[in-house]
Amino acid sequence: MELHTNSPIGVFDSGVGGLTVLDECLASLPGEDFIYFGDTAFFPYGERSVQQLRARSLRIVDWLLGQQVKLVVVACNSATAAALEYLQTQREVSIIGVMAPEAHAAVQASRNRRIGLLATEATVASGSYERMVHAHDAGAQVTSVACPKLAPAIQNGDAFDADLLELVRDYAAPLRKAEVDTAILGCTHYPMIDRLLRRTLPGVTLISSGEEIAREVHETLERKTLLRGLGKEGEYRFACSGDPAAFVELGSRFLQMPLGKVDQVDVDAVTAS
User: Fold this and answer.
1) Highest mean pLDDT range out of 91-95, 162-166, 185-189?
2) Which residues carry out catalysis?
3) Which residues pair with 264 in a beta bridge?
4) What pTM, to 2 d.p., does this model score?
């Protein structure tokens, strides 16, 4: 597969959470074009098996390759934990995940070496964050909390109701008890309720993936001489596997910019090239 400087960057997530990553990429790489795919028909990923996530992620990557992307960002922690290494062995295009930059940033930010993790069940069960944190600091204490109801509540748009507040308090309680000073937001949906999390975890440094991933994308494209200059403002377009209208409603509210037409795509119909 021949790659071109002017080709777009592909980004995918289980739903709208990966827009937190896309938002940082749009700001940091203003000359690049982006294609974002939200797998809303298969959401939530946190309940899926490793085998399901690998198969589904590969189909999405193949669809993005059909759109001639030059790099793929797996903007979903569950998919990164279950499928990133597998995807990298199956396809030649550069594929970047969201977890390693967060783990490194958390170790750098922590002063008392007590690090918390809020993530989906699949991500916590994988143990990936603990391994990555300990690769940088073997003595760090990691308190991991699975939050199965949190991403669905955010995805459904219930970001400011009393039930969500109580949910966040319950999930944050083990981190407060462990006296962590740094917490990894191990799901790209969670930065969408950043202010609520900051109120629930006062004084705790929150680590999310967007800024770190944008930096890694820039460095990878530059290294492969695929980075596009600033001659013009880049374009972006969106696709999803579920209801486009629902995706537009929540996505435009978060990005605070028009999403335009969102295509509905059946990735099960994709044939690997």
Assistant:
1) 91-95
2) 76, 187
3) 240
4) 0.88
